[in-house]
Specification:
By secondary structure, the chain is mainly α. The chain contains twelve helices and no strands.
């Protein structure tokens, strides 16, 4: 909500602000899903973290990498239909919201990764890391907002909010890779670069055709995945072993005799 408060303070209530609010509502709900799904694995991940088992790190790194790379491909698959879908659901009055949603949909990735990491930090009793990331990114967002106000950039609240979101995501990734070793740097960094490369191609080509931009971006992501192989077979085997352990523990718990 801070984005909209800043934007309302700078420009007042405008149609663009309403369109942005409509476009963000469903996307924010979608971004919460990875964190909610991760809660089912938190007990096993917490025990792996306490034992120093590297499979826990691989598991989380794989989840983050999948969100970035395959989430990017999924966005490319749905983006061409977003304007028509928004107009169909909300009516022709909100056709401009569909155009804005083409850009807003990219916020799903950092939101999803941030919520996932935040849930895991809480489970690992690393709430201080999460708090520091929020404070640092919030301070950066406010600084950018006031700089944009002075420069006269349009929609400064939304631009500053997007910057703050990316900063929050970047700070969390840096802390988890270099400070508390919750993520495997090589895998996650390659996934972020691949996702950013696809998004860059999309932004460049979009001026000519939304469909071609999506196809080009998806092709770049798939090509880079094939070339750089950010997810190794060894990592998949280790993650599968940890997942099998989780299923075994759940089966053991369900098979325990009931004590009255």
């Amino acid at each position: 909500q801070g984005w909209f408060l800043m934007q309302r303070f700078s420009d007042g209530i405008t149609p663009e602000l309403g369109y942005m609010a409509v476009a963000l509502q469903g996307l924010i709900l979608l971004s919460i899903l990875p964190g909610a799904l991760a809660t089912t694995s938190i007990p096993v991940l917490s025990r792996a973290h306490a034992r120093g088992d590297p499979r826990g790190v691989r598991y989380v790194s794989l989840a983050v990498s999948v969100i970035y790379m395959f989430g990017t491909v999924l966005i490319f698959a749905v983006v061409p239909a977003v304007p028509a879908a928004v107009e169909f659901m909300f009516g022709q009055r909100y056709s401009q919201a569909g155009t804005i949603a083409v850009f807003v949909v990219w916020f799903v990735l950092p939101f999803a990764v941030g919520n996932l990491i935040h849930s895991l930090l809480h489970a690992y009793a690393k709430d201080r890391v999460a708090l520091v990331a929020v404070l640092q990114s919030g301070g950066a967002m406010l600084l950018v907002y006031f700089l944009l106000l002075r420069s006269g950039v349009s929609m400064p609240g939304i631009v500053a909010g997007a910057f703050g979101l990316l900063a929050w995501n970047g700070i969390l990734l840096y802390q988890c890779i270099h400070r508390i070793r919750l993520l495997e740097g090589r895998m996650v960094k390659r996934a972020v670069i691949i996702s950013a490369a696809g998004a860059g191609v999309f932004l460049i080509v979009r001026a000519y055709s939304l469909s071609f931009a999506s196809l080009g971006g998806a092709a770049v992501v798939v090509l880079l995945i094939v070339l750089f192989k950010p997810i190794s077979r060894e990592a998949l085997k280790e993650v599968w072993g940890l997942a099998s352990m989780r299923r075994g523990e759940q089966s053991g718990e369900s098979g325990m005799p009931r004590v009255d």
